[in-house]
């Protein structure tokens, strides 16, 4: 839910939503205190979050900490090993499985949608697997068809509904493509990743969730990571996520921790922890999941000058270091997970926004401190 959730944040920034006072940063026991990182993490909460949690791995060791509270208006601190919905970071897992199938010769990047999913989308014979992965298909993003709070109660009213991916794809393709022809431009589209999930199942006979579990979660021992399907709760310790609503002319936050994640599907349904995401990105960039030539494909932008390849994103820090990974928005949760190419520094941070302000600048400051400090 990347673009749709960003729009939700933008439209509710500076609303009169009262959040609980930020708690002091809590570091994991027996781990070095890092004053600068602590200050930046507190700054994320102050910018507009109920709570935040982070893990940094670098030459100093492993640093884990939290700030704020796990629930609004309650004193309980965010669990340092808390689980959260990772949103579009799911796409990097889906892309990794897709490329593993390419490596096994069971799928080609140039295969068309029509080859594996006949009739699924208009002009499917012109859209390739590669274009689904790097968001150059032009397919309209189904997320943009979903009315979002606080203007609409649609999401709240449908929080327990099971969404079929075909239904969501149809919502997207009912609209004209973002551009023509496929491959000529970039437009972020979770519709493409729903199709990739269906292609994985067509190729293997098993769901993309089962393939992620078998190929990534179990081998890497990501004990806090899951593909929940339709299960609405977050198992294990976790902070609560919230959505802004308009009631009687005033804005408030509604606890949206529990919901049916089939709304996100292969584009964003997964749950994980800061430790597991750092472990996953480390394994990916370290060549444990894909051979070098396919990692190079992942790091190749879909359009010239772009910052998104085949399910992998990158950004440049203030000190000129380029870091690779992805970020994600799931309703009530936001997360970022990046690593330097040599894997000497890795950072994952997640937060639960309170919609009182924009947190992106504060998160960027935290990432800069972690990678450049």
Strand content: 15-25%
Low-confidence stretches: none
Name the CATH homologous superfamily: DD-peptidase/beta-lactamase superfamily
Helices and strands, in order, run as HEHEEEHHHHHHHEEEHHEEEEH
**How far do the termini sit from each other?**
31 Å
CATH topology: Beta-lactamase
Mean pLDDT: 93
Order of strands, main sheet, comes to 1-3-2-11-10-9-8
Helix content: 25-40%
Pairing-aware structural class of the strands and helices?
alpha+beta
What does this structure look like?
The protein has 373 residues and is an alpha+beta fold. The chain has a single domain, classed as 3-Layer(aba) Sandwich (Beta-lactamase). 32% of the residues lie in helices and 17% in strands. It contains twelve helices and eleven strands. The chain has a seven-stranded antiparallel beta sheet, sandwiched between helices. The chain has a two-stranded antiparallel sheet with strand order 4-7. The protein has a two-stranded antiparallel sheet with strand order 5-6. Strand 9 and strand 10 (333-339) form a beta hairpin. Helix 3 (90-103) crosses helix 8 (190-204). The two termini are 31 Å apart. 53% of the residues are buried. InterPro entries: AmpC-like (IPR050491), Beta-lactam-related (IPR001466), Beta-lactam/transpept-like (IPR012338).
